[in-house]
Amino acid sequence: MEIWMSVAIGILFAVAVYLILSRSLLRIILGTSILTHGVHLLLLTMSRLKTGAPPLLGEESGTYVDPLPQALILTSIVINFGVTAFFFVLAYRSYIRLKTDDMEEVKRKGGQ
Amino acid sequence: MYLLHAAILAPFVLAALVPAIRKGTKQIHTGWIVLILPILLFLNFLRYLPVVRTDVTQTISLPWIPSLGIDFTVYLDGLGLLFALLITGIGALVVLYSIFYLDPEQEAIHRFYLYLLLFMGAMLGIVLSDNMIVLYTFWELTSISSFLLIAFWYERDRSRYGALKSMLITVFGGFAMLAGFVVLHGMTGTWSIRETIAMLDHVQGQPLFLLAMILILLGAFTKSAQFPFHIWLPDAMEAPTPVSAYLHSATMVKAGIYLVARFSPVFAGQAEWFWIISLVGIITMCYGSILAVKQTDLKALLAYSTISQLGLIMSLFGAGSAAVYYGYGEESLLYTAATTAAIFHLINHATFKGALFMVAGIVDHETGTRDIRRLGGLISLMPITFTVACISGFSMAGVPPFNGYLSKEMFLEAMVELTHLHIFDLGTWGVLFPILAFLGSVFTFVYSMILIFKTFRGPLQKEKLGVTPHEAPTGMLIAPVILAVCVVLLGLFPNVLSYSIIEPAMRSVLPSLVAPGEHFEVHIAFWHGFTPALFMTLGVIGLGTVLYLLLGRWKGIYGMYPDKLTWNHVYDSLLRYGEKVAHALTDAYMNRSARNYLVYIFGFMVIVLGVALWRADVLSLLTTDTAPINMYEIVLIAMLVISAVAVPFARQRLIAVIMTGAVGYLVTLFFVLFRAPDLALTQMIIETVSVVLFLLCFYHMPELRREVNTRRYRSLNIVISVGVGVVVTLIALSASGSSSFESIADYFVKNSHDLGGGDNVVNVILVDFRGFDTLLEITVLGIASLGIYSMIQLQLQGKDAGSRILYLHRKVTLAPKVPIGRTRKETPTVAKNMKQFKSNDVILETSTKVIVFIILTFALYLFFAGHNNPGGGFVGGLMAASALVLLALAFNAETVRRVLPLDYRDIMAAGLSVAYLTAMGSFVFGAPFLSQAFGYFEIPFLGKTELATALIFDLGVFLTVLGVTMTIILQIGEDR
């Protein structure tokens, strides 16, 4: 399972980076979104998968999965929402002002 | 008792109060209130005079960073006391003088006194600290306060230039000194100066000993304006004259000399120490005096004169160090005369130079100029000022019977004495010293005469002045007159000082030359018989007089020196060249293209991580011990990959967004598979809210276009993205495979119930174990939402952003108060704003009314259940927000505002306050920040219930997340 996941995570990262490097603002934002998903899965996979019960002590299980990555990811999910929203507004605001969503154009117009 | 600590800190405390004092007492000059402190401190330090003669030294330690061995240790010995008295004594006089110099109506005197007190405290800190790091801290504080004082009239270009120059040079030296301290620390393991002295045998002879010495000397030379670092001092004269009198003649520039004196017990006796200090000192002395003669600005002349005098003192400390070579005994005592002269001249220089600066200030104040070419004939108009100038000027020139004569003759004697030494190759080169000393003294005599006679004698040039000068007000004369009286008294009765302060100070500088309980015997006399020094003095006066009288004949020589070869030119071109190189370097890679930067970042990541993985031989770490996988999961993974890969190929933005959403929901499924219920819950709601967010933003964004790119551009993108993918895959494989260290997970699982009082380990980690992360995270969230708010509301446009904040804020808060009679159609912007939230779906509207309550209840349940079951503040807050978003979608944003007339930014602020207050609440119980407590209570009807402070903290999280989400969604929805 870990090997399969690792490959899938690599693909998520590759797609995300490709999107981030493109010229369209919307693609860049979607890229960051996918990158976040990749990071979350990476964190989980790194701590080994399915090694025990969910980290709820009420389950009375002998072993639990590692709770720490989960806490980290939870933080990240919510933060990501704020950051994505911020990106979006930044993107469409700059689109309204500069009349373009092409990063190369933005670079040219921003310098004026 | 921490009396000495209090003495150091008192100026800082008063400095903080100065602005308030200025506001409270407009009718009195703030200087009068400030004046009290240096006087009190001076009197306090006087009490220690008998103490420092005894062997009982005052050492009081206050822990600062005990783990690094850094304590705020103060230590009072003869040397420290000498400087402390100078700092507070001259400080009091300067404050008194400044009261009449600075007009409170026209100058920002509260700033002036703030900086001045800051400086005073820092300076006391330097001379009383035993710990090198503490000393360094105060050292840099003097640089900073000096910078602020030089730039006091910051609207002048020259002031800013001078301030920056002094800052750059002295801070450079400060860094060098810090490095020197670190090197010393590496050898001894202690930061204490006294302990370093005690470990002398261990230190001397180590290979890095010389390096430490040179680095520390760099600090001393830059601060004391020694050649070639002297260039900052003349430019520092842009400061108000009281500052020049205080910092740039009497105290701060002597910090370097203090450093040399303080570290003499460590380094003295070494040939390098002797040669570097003596040579630099004597060259500076000569060079400064020669350049002083050519100056036409009174203060510039005094600045070069100060450089020269500092060189003199420095060279004396260097010469005195030779005595240590001979060790304890009769012979060495002979050579300590140089150190005596150094300390004596240090005091004398403070008195006559302080007075002279004040004279220059008075002349400037009363005539409006400091240009010697325009001055003259002031003798009859300003008799008292002239008298003071005369006394101090002759003292500086080394004419009897003033104190300057005594120390100057001791200086000449010490320099002659050096030629008799037969150590450190002095037999060959020692003759340099008396020659340079003589030359410097002649020019010192010449510029002293220029200062006195060109200003006060000769014809009065009224037409060039524009005002009729008159004597300064009495108050302004008090301080210089006191100093002039000191000059005379110390000249007539020098031995007042020798017993009380010079002898103890010498013991601090040369501790190895006296046995415990013994003292140096210092006796300063006018008449030593017909010694070489006496003839030299006579020669100085004779030759000096001739040169002064013929000044017009030979002054042209100065013009022959090319400007390009000056040190100032070196400094300026260094700065210019440095800026140019930095610009060129930055422009080479910062081309304002975000993609370029990302290429750097990702390229770097691939290379560094790739090399690291290759070197760690990562493939061997791969494990076969993996979790089982079934068909269902393989299909899920395939779907995940397919939907991700589809995104770049999507032609329409809606498809791209839906595909991204699919990835998100699939990730949610994986969270379920991997036993992470909290994550699954949160991700699910976030994905839902995100869809709303995407749709709202779509309104503003253009349709996707096919990107036309060059082949190179595209292939680089593909190479980098594939590279990142491969590296990440390898990292994931190696990380999940290796088990080179224990997971810290067990700690959390084991202690969650007992220490955190919760069964949901993830939640306990969030609110308790790693609560600080969460606290800062919600802070970041708050900032992000405020960023969105301001981007939309303010539409920042250049300079008027500030005024728009006020205007728009009013507009926003007033918006709901539109009279009910007016329909929304009458306010077209609002109507247009709400357009996107409009819905005609009756079924949606009706069902929403019910569903909203169900969701809200569920949100509350999630919040309360969180500590023991899946849920918590994050999920709860998001769930509640999603209910309100649904309401806004079904009806419109106005409905949400009507139903819940709240400003969501206030909710966010309330949430953050709750979280921070809970975190700080633990202080009340003497516990560290963010300590959580819990207990089980018997509550009627509810039975045994757990109450935890973590729940209050989580409430803060809940409110913040709710406020942030709603602020974001509503703001974007209302944007035109």
Kindly describe this structure.
The complex is a heterodimer of chains A (112) and B (976). Chain A is mainly α and 112 residues long. Chain A has a single domain, classed as Helix Hairpins (Orthogonal Bundle), CATH 1.10.287. Chain A is built from four helices and no strands. Chain A has helices at 2-20, 25-46, 67-98, 103-110. Chain A is elongated and about 60 Å long. In chain A, 62% of the residues are buried. In chain B, the strands form two sheets. Chain B has a two-stranded antiparallel ribbon. In chain B, strands 3-4 form a two-stranded antiparallel sheet. Among the domains of chain B are: 268-513 and 525-549; 771-976, no CATH class. In chain B, α6 runs antiparallel to α7 (157-188), α29 runs antiparallel to α30 (653-673) and α31 runs parallel beside α39 (873-890). Chain B has 976 residues and is an all-alpha fold. The two termini of chain B are 67 Å apart. The longest helix of chain B is centred in the N-terminal third of the chain and has 32 residues, at 157-188. Residues 796-835 of chain B have low confidence and may be disordered. Chain B is built from 42 helices and four strands. Helix content of chain B is 71%, strand content 3%. Classes of the chains: A mainly alpha (112), B mainly alpha (976). The interface between A and B is large, with 85 and 109 residues.
Looking at how many chains there are and whether they match, the oligomeric state comes to: heterodimer
Q: Which sheet architecture does the biggest sheet of chain A show?
A: none
Of all chain pairs, the largest interface belongs to: A-B, 85 and 109 residues
Mean pLDDT of chain B: 82
Please specify the SSE layout and strand pairing.
The complex is a heterodimer of chains A (112) and B (976).
Chain A lengths: L1 H19 L4 H22 L20 H32 L4 H8 L2
Chain B lengths: L2 H22 L5 H17 L2 H5 L4 E8 L4 E7 L1 H24 L7 H20 L3 H19 L6 H32 L4 H6 L1 H4 L5 H15 L8 H4 L5 H10 L4 H13 L3 H24 L3 H29 L3 H6 L1 H31 L15 H15 L5 H16 L7 H4 L2 H25 L5 H4 L8 H19 L2 H15 L22 H18 L1 H4 L12 H23 L4 H22 L15 H19 L3 H21 L3 H22 L12 H27 L7 H12 L4 H9 L1 H24 L6 H14 L13 H7 L7 H24 L7 H18 L2 H7 L4 H21 L9 E6 L3 E6 H26 L2
Antiparallel strand pairs in B: 1-2, 3-4
Helix pairs in contact in B: 1-2, 1-5, 2-4, 4-5, 4-12, 4-17, 4-23, 4-24, 5-6, 6-7, 7-10, 10-13, 12-17, 13-15, 14-15, 14-21, 15-17, 15-19, 15-21, 17-18, 17-19, 17-23, 17-24, 18-21, 18-23, 19-21, 19-23, 19-25, 21-25, 28-32, 29-30, 30-31, 31-39, 33-34, 34-35, 35-41, 35-42, 38-39, 39-40, 39-42, ...
